[in-house]
Prior knowledge:
Layout: E1 7-12, E2 21-26, H1 33-46, H2 58-66, H3 84-87, H4 90-103, H5 108-123, E3 126-129, E4 132-135, H6 147-170
Antiparallel strand pairs: 1-2, 3-4
Helix pairs in contact: 1-5, 4-5, 4-6
Amino acid sequence: MNSSAPSIKGLNKQHKPDQPIRPVVNWKNSPAYKLSKFFTEKIHCLTPLPNAFNIKNTQELIKNLKDTPLLPCHSLASLDVTKMYSNIPIGETKKILTDILKRELVNPQAQQEIIKWYDIITRQNYFTHNNDTVTQYDGLAMGAPSSGLIAELFLQHTEQKHLPRLTCEHKI
């Protein structure tokens, strides 16, 4: 009902040296908030993600490391994405989503609707700060309920495409 532009505030990253600021966008009252939540729920139902290379928390990492046979010639690697949401390519991820929906044999009409929702959500890429409206031209909207899922689609596609070769080449 009472929609408003998402607003941004900054929180200190207290666990990092020099405590840089993490931008946090409140999408709760944005015009596309409910569509973004619905989109996320729908994608989770239609296309379960394998999360092959992800961990949930430190405890899971420790358990996985204990269960992994490591040889002296092996190396461990941890990948972190800087400014992740603003670096996710919208067009490429749309193609990845389209391919996933086809692979999962989602009804063509539902595919079209989901892609329309994707377009609407990814165009809602603005926020307010000090009574000014700021447009974010690249990547995903920070604070949108769907941004984590969309980023995950892109990251898992990238992992599946590149990690098998890298793990072999570098004995990771």
